[in-house]
Amino acid sequence: MLIFLSCSKIMITILFFLVCFEFSNGVNVRSSEGRKGQWQLLLNNTGVVGMHVALTYKDTVIMFDQTGAGQSGYRLRRRFNGSRCTINHHDLLDSTCYAHSVEYDISANKVRPLRLDTDPWCSSASFLSNGTLLQTGGFEKGAKRVRFYRPCGNHQCDWIQSKKTLSDERWYASSQILPEHNRVVVVGGRRVFTYEFVPKTSPGEKSFDLPFLHQTNDRDGGGNNLYPFLHLSSDGNLNRVIKTFPRIPGEGSRNYPSSGSSVMLPLDHRDNFQKVEVMVCGGSSIGALEAARKGRFLEGLRSCGRMVITGNNNKWEMEYMPKPRLLHDMLILPTGNILIINGAKHGCAGYENARNASLEPYLYSPNKKLGKRFTMLKSTKIARMYHSSATLLSDGRVLVAGGNPHGRYIFHNVAYPTELRLQAFVPHYMESRYHNWRPSNMTIYGGGGRHAIGYGKEFRVEFFLEKRMQNNEVGFSAYAPPFTTHSFAMNQRMLKLRCKSLDRKGGGWVVAVLEAPPSPNVAPSGYYLLTVVNGGIPSMSQWVQFAHA
Ligand SMILES: *[C@@H]1O[C@H](CO)[C@@H](O)[C@H](O)[C@H]1NC(C)=O
Ligand SMILES: *[C@@H]1O[C@H](CO)[C@@H](O)[C@H](O)[C@H]1NC(C)=O
Ligand SMILES: *[C@@H]1O[C@H](CO)[C@@H](O)[C@H](O)[C@H]1NC(C)=O
Ligand SMILES: *[C@@H]1O[C@H](CO)[C@@H](O)[C@H](O)[C@H]1NC(C)=O
Ligand SMILES: *[C@@H]1O[C@H](CO)[C@@H](O)[C@H](O)[C@H]1NC(C)=O
């Protein structure tokens, strides 16, 4: 059960998952006035463009770009093979004298360089159950590579390139962790119409043809089915097509290089995580790629489609964003609302192909009435165009990085220079006026830290809550951190967990007994961010691992 939705065309399914609880979307405390969030500038130079980003369970963020970009913003004193990088002309231009991947330490607000042996440009990745990032594919010598990053928290760890390779070259493929055996499915890529599983369990393991990728390939549009949208449903079907969904309405396409985005809305314990709903937003108009090459930038798509992919009534329900948008990211906030951030209004993906940056994020509240779901948030001054990305942090902020619509690092005399500044978008719920409502000092018992929590098992969470939001539930969410690139947050999933009891102990301390997700179909084994949400105000999150006990 995975689902892939590809482009503006047909979709196929493979599906899976989710858990938990109802949170109300809104804080009733104040009107929407002033609930627009803030921007922080964290670093002026991340060294490398944050084309691909992922938050590890050690609270660091892995970022990487393409090794072929030449001079990055992080010059090395020595190459990774030990030889010195001098200031002679050759070395100044030599790509191996620059970092192309970094680890960002959130609490120290610093980056350190990581070693890449081959090019992971436009690749995919998924976290395994032990928190190791399994990265797949890239460009040229990197196209069949599998790399591991095992987070360590002591600044010692680095990329490890596996000797076992992929069966097919994967450039612009997507990947998704599966419920069983810690395996990842990797789907598609440029001129590749197959999927395969990693890590390989036997040397002879091959890829499988996927007719859907042939059917949806748009040659004149640059593919328009690259970085296929992949979501794991909760029904347990795998490796066969069980449903064909209707085509999403709207003129234009949704997948790379049209680069709309797709998100699976939070799964809820109240239906046993059986209702799975996907939302696809934005993208490019028909002919956007050809037009951009001639210097004409067509307006992007405003439409979003929502579809419940489980059950028998699979229909797209359409609605409209405030403005057209492409090249954006869609992230699930701990409140269960969707943040739509980064991107542009005109053109499509690819070098120099987009114009008119989308500077204001949108907040999408899935449970509000149609027509009332979008709110415009505070604008940034920094354009985040092609090759930008974003990811949620455990403290509730959203890290925003990258942007480089050029094959090299270019800072002057172009419409959109290479962007190395690192920002955080700080949602309104972190403002000091909500401080008394923000649950804090959370401790997870019977899991967290060293021990994983078994599927379906009860576990205890203790936290401090000064004021309970009136008439609002206290909810609990578990969030699988995604790997974000090219407008798609792979493996992103949120479960609203069942709370079996909630007791005040006095002095503001509260003890909740929660139920872990029932199975890996709902939540593949791995690290999740657990958050307490008090009527729309989330706590800082703590890492918890779900696994077979
Ligand atoms: C970034 O650079 C600007 C301009 O030089 C400076 O004012 C600012 O303090 C710097 N910010 C950070 C986070 O380093
Ligand atoms: C290290 O890499 C550089 C650049 O590719 C190469 O010129 C040099 O010979 C290498 N040195 C060693 C010790 O392998
Ligand atoms: C996690 O599993 C992967 C794949 O089996 C392995 O390479 C890696 O070393 C493991 N990481 C940890 C932290 O045990
Ligand atoms: C898009 O940007 C161009 C300049 O690049 C400007 O002339 C045009 O008005 C902008 N369009 C919109 C809809 O913002
Ligand atoms: C919560 O933790 C913070 C930081 O560790 C501490 O300063 C504060 O006193 C704690 N709050 C309570 C209510 O114990």
UniProtKB/TrEMBL annotation:
<dbReference type="InterPro" id="IPR037293">
    <property type="entry name" value="Gal_Oxidase_central_sf"/>
</dbReference>
<dbReference type="Pfam" id="PF09118">
    <property type="entry name" value="GO-like_E_set"/>
</dbReference>
<dbReference type="InterPro" id="IPR011043">
    <property type="entry name" value="Gal_Oxase/kelch_b-propeller"/>
</dbReference>
<dbReference type="Pfam" id="PF07250">
    <property type="entry name" value="Glyoxal_oxid_N"/>
</dbReference>
<protein>
    <recommendedName>
        <fullName>Galactose oxidase-like Early set domain-containing protein</fullName>
    </recommendedName>
</protein>
<keyword id="KW-0732">Signal</keyword>
<feature type="domain" description="Galactose oxidase-like Early set">
    <location>
        <begin position="452"/>
        <end position="545"/>
    </location>
</feature>
<dbReference type="InterPro" id="IPR013783">
    <property type="entry name" value="Ig-like_fold"/>
</dbReference>
<dbReference type="InterPro" id="IPR015202">
    <property type="entry name" value="GO-like_E_set"/>
</dbReference>
<dbReference type="InterPro" id="IPR009880">
    <property type="entry name" value="Glyoxal_oxidase_N"/>
</dbReference>
<feature type="domain" description="Glyoxal oxidase N-terminal">
    <location>
        <begin position="51"/>
        <end position="429"/>
    </location>
</feature>
<dbReference type="InterPro" id="IPR014756">
    <property type="entry name" value="Ig_E-set"/>
</dbReference>
<feature type="signal peptide">
    <location>
        <begin position="1"/>
        <end position="26"/>
    </location>
</feature>
